[in-house]
Amino acid sequence: MKQLDVCLTPELLHLHNLSNSIVVVADIFRATSCMVTGLAYGVKSITPVATLEECRLLQERGMIGAAERNAKKEEGFQLDNSPFSYMADNLIGAEIAMTTTNGTLSITKAKATAVKVLVGSFLNLGALANYLRSEVYDVTVLCAGWKGRPNLEDTLFAGALADALQEQFMLLEDGTLMAQRLYQESRHNLLASVANSSHVRRLQRLGIQKDISYCLQTDLYDIVPVLRGGKLIAMP
């Protein structure tokens, strides 16, 4: 039977064997929520890169540059890290290069050895679960965390996906069981569950309350972003 595992931070990824595993990267506040939103609103592709320098180079080559560090937009780039910025009509058909503090770094770490890399958020939870049920591979949920440390919102998402797939996948590792239990205890009020989390406090200090509520909504979009040729696209 297939197995679903949870990696609570990219710093622990080397402990996981990804050779037979689809990796689902989750950076709920806010990178993967932006990616799902953008592709749902008609963005053609999003190229995730680890560094500002890579993103700047792609912007100079004609892509729209999106860059965030420490929850703030970096100077010299066109887009920030708010999902609401990815709903604009002028982005329909656009190719975006994106770098963020945690999410894009997690994608670049996973892509070398994973069978494939998908992007997950609460916004596309149901679509993602439905797709993974049809796959023959194991699944590893990679929580982007915050600068190498676990965080609450990504762990909650991992638990939600594990809970949705518990009939089709074995949940054997303690990290997976912890995430599932946390989600089960929090599922009826996710916003309250993350109210005192470090990243929520960080975003609130920047006046970004609406992003928090938005990113915790479930099943707004029926798309599954997949990494192909270095670009995230909506799976056909």
Verbal overview:
- With 236 residues, the protein is of the alpha/beta class.
- The protein has one domain (4-234): Alpha-Beta Complex (putative 2-phosphosulfolactate phosphatase), CATH 3.90.1560.10.
- The protein is 34% helix and 19% strand.
- The strands form 3 sheets. A 4-stranded parallel sheet has the order 1-8-2-7, sandwiched between helices. It has a 4-stranded mixed sheet with strand order 3-6-4-5.
- Helix 4 (125-133) crosses helix 5 (152-164) and helix 5 crosses helix 6.
- The longest helix has 13 residues, at 152-164.
- The chain is globular and about 45 Å long.
- The two termini are 27 Å apart.
- The relative contact order is 0.23.
Q: Descriptors for this entry?
A:
four-stranded parallel beta sheet, putative 2-phosphosulfolactate phosphatase, 236 residues, alpha/beta
What's the helix and strand layout?
Elements: E1 4-7, E2 21-26, H1 31-40, E3 45-48, H2 52-60, E4 64-69, E5 72-73, E6 95-99, H3 103-110, E7 116-120, H4 125-133, E8 138-143, H5 152-164, H6 174-186, H7 190-193, H8 198-205, H9 209-215, E9 225-228, E10 231-234
Parallel strand pairs: 1-8, 2-7, 2-8, 3-6, 4-6
Antiparallel strand pairs: 4-5, 9-10
Helix pairs in contact: 4-5, 5-6
EC number: 3.1.3.71
Family: Belongs to the ComB family.
GO molecular function: 2-phosphosulfolactate phosphatase activity; magnesium ion binding; sulfopyruvate decarboxylase activity
CATH homologous superfamily heading: ComB-like
Structural class: alpha/beta
Radius of gyration over C-alpha positions, nearest whole angstrom: 16 Å
The CATH architecture term is Alpha-Beta Complex
Distance between the termini: 27 Å
CATH top level class name: Alpha Beta
Numbering strands along the chain, what is their spatial order in the largest sheet?
Answer: 1-8-2-7
Helical content, roughly? Answer: 25-40%
* Rough outline: globular
Overall pLDDT level: 95
Strand content: 15-25%
How many alpha or pi helices?
Answer: 9
Order of helices and strands: EEHEHEEEHEHEHHHHHEE
How many distinct beta strands? 10
Number of domains: 1
Family: Belongs to the ComB family.
Organism: Dyadobacter jejuensis
EC number: 3.1.3.71
Keywords: Hydrolase, Magnesium
